[in-house]
Amino acid sequence: MGGGQGAPPWVSYALGFAQVGLKRPAEALAAWERVREAVPEFEPVYLDLADVYLQLDDGDRAVATLRAAEKRWPGDADVLNALGTIQVRRNALGEAVETFE
Question: CA quadruple 99, 95, 20, 69: dihedral positive or negative?
């Protein structure tokens, strides 16, 4: 199947969605990490990665991924809302309030 090393990044991005649909979050994670490495300016993949990290119960990596996105796109509402939502889920309410503000 496509999505390997020589395939265009969009193939890996599409493959990630297929893997999520098949309930294979670890495989989706691998596909989307390839996308982020190949096209670090593609913002949606950061949000998708954070979601999959949460599915794998890795809140630390989800936050780290969103922090990396925040550095690239400071003040981006989608990134900050995703980060704040994770902070609320982790009961880091003070941080969440700051993020949402």
Answer: positive
Q: Global pTM?
A: 0.86
CA nearest to 32, candidates 87, 84, 69: 69
Helix (H) or strand (E) holding 28: helix 25-38
pLDDT in tens, the chain (101 residues): 344 567 899 999 999 999 999 999 999 999 999 999 999 999 999 999 999 999 999 999 999 999 999 999 999 999 999 999 999 988 888 888 888 88
